Amino acid sequence: xxxxxxxxxxxxxxxxxxxxxxxxxxxxxxxxxxxxxxxxxxxxxxxxxxxxxxxxxxxxxxxxxxxxxxxxxxxxxxxxxxxxxxxxxxxxxxxxxxxxxxxxxxxxxxxxxxxxxxxxxxxxxxxxxxxxxxxxxxxxxxxxxxxxxxxxxxxxxxxxxxxxxxxxxxxxxxxxxxxxxxxxxxxxxxxxxxxxxxxxxxxxxxxxxxxxxxxxxxxxxxxxxxxxxxxxxxx
Length: 235
Ligand SMILES: Nc1ncnc2c1ncn2[C@@H]1O[C@H](COP(=O)(O)OP(=O)(O)OP(=O)(O)O)[C@@H](O)[C@H]1O
Description:
Blueprint: E1 2-12, E2 15-26, E3 30-34, H1 41-48, E4 56-62, E5 68-69, E6 77-80, H2 92-102, H3 113-119, H4 124-127, H5 136-149, E7 154-158, H6 166-179, E8 184-188, H7 192-198, E9 201-206, E10 209-212, H8 215-218, H9 223-232
Helix pairs in contact: 2-3, 2-5
The structure holds adenosine-5'-triphosphate (ATP).
Adenosine-5'-triphosphate binds next to strand 2 and helix 1.
């Protein structure tokens, strides 16, 4: 599967974020999306997830037979936002059960809702409290869990690891590595060590375009300097 962005344009008022930007993502890779504050990373994810519309250009999914579809269903997209949007009035276990029930036909897990929550480090005693009272990190874990078990072929992870404790972060990194076998994984981060550790490709959102970092620079000692040099240039 491929996710193809072609001549994408998007502005908010006077501020143009993408200008005829094109890039094609492929299954089997973890892409790190880097860019300065306000470059448009979250906006890009929202456009792919169909929460926002483009001004022009197209975003399409190309299946393994080469059939291109710009009218894809947004359930194809697993979007883990920095600020989660979970139903406050449900407990953790109620919500996970609800999502599992709704997605019976596409679950990747044979575990129960409670076992899945435990796998993500949410203790049984915490599974029965309202999501409203979960910490930021716990909410992120729940969001990541429901995204993973619904087997989306495309994952958009917006700064996913910033609120996880070291144990959870380690486990989630392992999961992200597993996800890429059957999915396109794109995550945005400002943590360069994390990008180096997890990513197969680095995409820089810079000057309203996507720029791919040369492969050999990803593991080079000058990685940080390279990124800073590129991102501090331009307009
Ligand atoms: N709904 C909106 N209406 C108007 N402007 C918006 C809207 N959403 C985002 N913006 C603006 O678009 C720009 C890009 O925002 P976005 O959140 O996509 O950046 P980002 O690259 O994710 O930034 P950061 O790295 O700081 O999280 C910012 O200047 C922001 O203020």
